[in-house]
């Protein structure tokens, strides 16, 4: 583990991280520690960790995201199910969770009651609108603006998307949405900011290409009440190709607009 004494602008906090062995300790500290930024010292018996971090370079939130993405629940984030299940048996501190999570149709285990996710509403009602729906609406608005070649509308849509991302409360997401959200959240924030600051349609379309891949991952986890078409343009990006999502079956290419409006094909239909 990195020495806490090496951390400048140091702030130290005590945090709870789930785990059950020395093997867990190694993985937890490796995930949370980062040279010059953060040092994590986790106690196997108490499940408490001393976190020392450079408050000008990182935050408790960032560190605990990394720990969760390594497979360990903590006081702010739950580990993605697939990551937890990939841990070695000695590190699976909750046992085999697949059965318990399926049995309650995705509701959160009671031993997580003190976490940030306590307010999760895991309703299984059909077609309940996802808390991510506002992001999808912003994405489709941006897509339509690119088709029309309206750069100003793209910038405005990107600003709305950026605000929407910041407003998402992870505790309100369904379990499968939560897992994917943790994976793509930072990339989405970066891509929305890039799209907002990009000048001209050419740069905006390049930024939209990257954004589309992250939105695709999210919408696959959402089971939207409407059909979504995952389309491909073979010519954009120096003929490497680029994808986009649409609610309309007819191809309308956002990468070329009126120049080649119907260029492309549907790769996948998401229902």
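^ Assign residues to that structure.
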């Amino acid at each position: 583990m990195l020495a806490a004494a090496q951390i400048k602008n140091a702030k130290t906090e005590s945090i709870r991280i789930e785990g059950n062995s020395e093997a867990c300790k190694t993985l937890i500290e490796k995930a949370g520690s980062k040279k010059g930024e953060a040092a994590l010292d986790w106690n196997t018996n108490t499940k408490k960790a001393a976190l020392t971090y450079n408050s000008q370079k990182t935050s408790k939130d960032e560190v605990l995201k990394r720990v969760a993405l390594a497979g360990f629940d903590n006081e702010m984030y739950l580990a993605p199910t697939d990551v937890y299940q990939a841990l070695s048996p000695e590190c699976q501190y909750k046992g085999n969770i697949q059965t318990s999570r399926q049995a309650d149709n995705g509701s959160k285990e009671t031993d997580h009651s003190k976490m940030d996710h306590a307010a999760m509403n895991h309703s299984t009602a059909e077609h309940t609108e996802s808390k991510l729906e506002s992001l999808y609406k912003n994405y489709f608005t941006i897509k339509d603006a690119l088709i029309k070649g309206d750069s100003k509308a793209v910038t405005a849509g990107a600003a709305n998307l950026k605000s929407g991302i910041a407003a998402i409360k992870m505790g309100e997401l369904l379990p499968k949405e939560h897992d994917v959200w943790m994976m793509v959240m930072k990339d989405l924030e970066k891509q929305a900011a890039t799209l907002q600051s990009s000048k001209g349609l050419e740069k905006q379309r390049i930024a939209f290409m990257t954004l589309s891949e992250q939105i695709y991952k999210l919408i696959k986890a959402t089971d939207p009440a409407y059909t979504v078409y995952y389309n491909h343009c073979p010519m954009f990006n120096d003929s490497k190709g680029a994808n986009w999502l649409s609610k309309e079956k007819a191809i309308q290419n956002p990468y070329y607009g009126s120049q080649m409006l119907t260029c492309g094909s549907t790769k996948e239909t998401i229902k």
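The chain has two domains: 10-91, 132-270.
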